[in-house]
Amino acid sequence: MKTQLENIYKNAAQDLEKASSISDIEEIRGKYLSRKGEFNEIKKGLKDLSDADKRIIGSLANEITRKLEDALKSKYDEFYKKELNEKLEKEKLDVTLPGKFTPVGHTHPITSTTNEIVSIFQTLGFSVVSDELSPEVETEYYNFDMLNVPKDHPARDVQDTFYTKLAKNVVLRSQTSGAQIHAMEGKNPPIRVISPGRVYRNENINARKNNFFHQIEGLYVDKGITFGDLKGVLNEFIRIYFGASRPTRFRSSFFPFTEPSAEVDVQCIMCEGKGCRTCSGTGWLEILGAGMVDPNVLRGVGIDPDVYSGFAFGMGIERLAMLKYAIDDIRLFFNDDVRFLEQF
Ligand code: DAH
What is the DSSP-derived secondary structure letter of residue 245? Predict the structure, then answer.
């Protein structure tokens, strides 16, 4: 039995010599030291020996087992370190390498100007109408009829308005004012809304005009709304948008859907009112149209003009952005030239 034990140890030592990885070591451990391993088989035979032999062989078996365990452990440690180093080497990261450059996009100046105007009106108590109430493809009914625009009004001419082939009376909206009608239909005042969006006009394109642009429409209907409220809200908007109180001027004007109507000018931001090229020497820049909602419009949507009154306004977003950022050509917004867009 003694030789048997010594032989097993010799074989194990040889196997260990050939081992080259942690998994080889696990295999050797299984072969010799596990419950079904070769040493255990020998230990099972101890019970048949005399007490004296049992002691001698038993302690020899224990000693050899311990020797083998130690040898396995030191080999294991050696391989563990080696394999770990190899792994670390392979997975080494150079944290000082520069990252991959990914250009980050940003909001288009029309979007950011729209957001800015919207948030100013939100602080003044207006909320934005939902998209369904502000469609870009409209019927003449919402774009003109309900806004009190006469059937023979020149704005309805195909020269000014894009008619679609969807149906005879379906147009690309020429103004956001139709959103007023959608916002009032079937609702009771108070109604205090704004509606930004794209509008289309059959224009010859030049530095000042494009065949589509953006507007923001505003509407406030309640009991006792006066022209004073209109002036107060718009002056406050202009003060916030252009910065510290800039003089404004309300000029009387005409729109079919408001009575009285006004065009609002702000003192020229280029020349502070002295007169320059931007303001054609007048010292003033027109920025929006507004007025008290015409009683016919209120009646059309079932709101009694003897009980309620309201004001409305509409402004061009490109125009407001051009004035604020001193941009002299509307086409820059739509040409996708990143040298221009990157400045915002
Ligand atoms: N829709 C007008 C335009 O496109 C702008 C406008 C003027 C809107 C007066 C209004 C308003 O709501 O009251 O020129």
Answer: -
